[in-house]
Amino acid sequence: MFFWIIRRDLLLAMRRRSDVFTTLFFFVIVVSLFPLSVGPEMNMLRTMAPGVVWVAALLAAMLSLGRMFSNDYLDGTLEQMLLSPQSLSLLVLGKALAHWLVTGVPLVLMAPVLGIQYDLPAEALFVLTVSLLLGTPVLSLIGAIGAALTLGLRGGGVLVSLLVLPLYIPVLIFGSGAVEANMAGLGYDAHMSLLGAFLLVSLVFAPWAAAASLRVSME
Amino acid sequence: MNWESWSEFFAMGGYGVYVWGSYFVTLICIVGEVLLISKRRRTLDKHYGLIHDSNTKEEIKNETTS
Amino acid sequence: MAINWFKYSSPASFYSLAGKMIPIFVFLAVVLTIAGLYVGFFVAPTDFQQGEAYRIIFIHVPAAWMSMFLYVIMAVWAGIGLAFNTRLSSMMATAIAPTGAMFTFLALWTGALWGKPMWGTWWVWDARLTSELILLFLYIGFMSLQAAIDDPRRADKAGAIIALVGVVNIPIIYFSVQWWNTLHQGASVSLNQAPAMATTMLTGMMIMVFASWMYSIVVILKRVRVIILERESHTAWVAELRKKEAAR
To answer: Tell me, what's the ipTM?
Structure first.
């Protein structure tokens, strides 16, 4: 069931490829806007890069949250899923993972290219990519709670950002912190361990909270 | 006693703007909150009055003032 | 004894109980505020470092404390409402949120006005200030979510989930911000050096903290009464109450 959900969501995403690309291009455009607004001074861009890429990733991941449940909600599939004897948490976990594969992974793959725009050294590019790899699943998992809570509400898109962005702050801090620490010549192990810890904690609790939220929203 | 005169009290040793700015905004917030709640209550009373006692306007008035 | 408590967990009896309690707490709030301000402005001496500017503490610290207490209390009520399906607890949570947000705003505002003369800047990205700002965001998220949902039961439960997720996250957020702050130790503004406060200053501050509690109880009870009436307008007891009030 778990893998079935992931496969199904990936298939659906493949049929609507433009959605995936919209998110990705949003990410690219936001990151590219910063040099245009603050100037092309390389030293400044280098110090800004981790933060800019991370904030843009946060926004991109958040923008696509609405899609996580809304299509299934509209065509009634979600109701069927709630009635099925399968564990709803597992189902939510599957949907969150599918969301990550569709939006998170492209962001991770794109990040080194954008880092080059900001003249990041090779090792920093690597750290940036790894930090995003660890951090973006957390964004999808926590986002699932927000998406489930705002399901079917008017203005849900803006609302979800109010709910979810404050909760993203720790991931943002340690994700961009890892890259900054690396560029400052410090170790980034602590950052990575913490990002990993966030991932584990959200893997355990977020599907459960999101499942509870779905039940509330579907009553 | 800390203060020799009223003007000294209001000056707050040169920090009057900051001290009174804090207290003034706090006062506004508190008054605003209380007013908002009673307005919410009055709206409710009025709404309720219109539905159930639409024939006697006098009653609604009494209700809102009580 | 237990029966007594259960009796008041029904909105109808709580409504009248709250009505009886409000005047007591209004009295306490007014007396404590006057006492606290008197001690704060006329008894407590001038601070030898900060001059008179420190007198902002008498609202700043109570506001900051209340903002945090109220979030936790709100989450607890919301959680009880979610777990035991008690309507009144959820209404309490909904009633607490605006007051908590107001205190959070006040803590930030008075903090800025205190920071300007003391550190020369309205705002520093200190761990405490940043956490307080994030707390404001959490309050706003809770209230916006509840406002967006028309069905009150769904609003209660959805609000409870986001409040509980928030309360679990607050320590993580605070810890992260603290860590981030030590990493980016910029222009050093030390908030942690707390020179021994004169006893009268501390007394004034504590009286103001109690006054804030009393004020919070008053407005929360007032608001929860309105919420009860809004939600229960279709019930017999509200109709009965209306008749009584109209006859008065």
So the answer is: 0.88
